[in-house]
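Q: What would this chain look like folded?
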Amino acid sequence: MYEKYVKLLKDHNLKITSPRLEILKYLDEHHTHPNVEAIYSSLKKKHPSLSRTTVYNSLETMEKNRIVQSLTISGSEHRYDLNKSLHHHFLCTRCGIILDIDIACPNMDKTLQGGHHVEEVHGYFKGICKNCQKKEKGWRTNG
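A: My prediction, written as structure tokens:
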């Protein structure tokens, strides 16, 4: 169950700890780009001895080692993503959800042809997600 997370940590020469494994599993199962508080609150239920500091430090270490990426799309709040492929994001201005958008960057070829090595792409869209649009339409017709 945790084999792929153990391998991921080993491949980056990081110590394998229970909190790191749980955080990786959580991020792998929740593609909502959670913040530290959401991860901590969820894992704390199953692991009462877990501290917020441990979650924060684990995420920081895994980010430095390029296992997870940190997003700061809205204000200064860090949100975390296990998907390390080059991709964009969509931020719903109503509910705050951040979704992955798998579209090719139109400038990537030019950048690579210039001899550059791209490690990260930061592109995002802001708007209203389809779920919030449905809720608003339902509210308008019922209200």
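The domain at 1-82 is CATH 1.10.10.10 (Arc Repressor Mutant, subunit A).
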